[in-house]
Amino acid sequence: MGISGVVWIVIGFIGQAIFAARFLVQWLYSEYRKRSTFPMLFWYASIIGGTILLCYAIHKRDPVFILGQAGGLVVYVRNLQWRLRERRDASRSDT
Question: What is the pTM of this model?
Fold first, then answer.
């Protein structure tokens, strides 16, 4: 394995670490709020980690991994859109 292979493994681990950290973020935030909820950081970490993992999957040419990450990214982006719309609508109703 050359330097390029090592770099891609590091990229894959970084993506996986960011993606996995989102569960810790969600758990800690839910404990803080005393109810099950997803903070905005959860969706940002999902998108960032998922994008890095998708790049890694494309590099590896793994169709199962590519489909799984690409499908997930659609859901994460859509959920982030909903949350941003909720915030915008809430700020409009406060004025």
Answer: 0.88
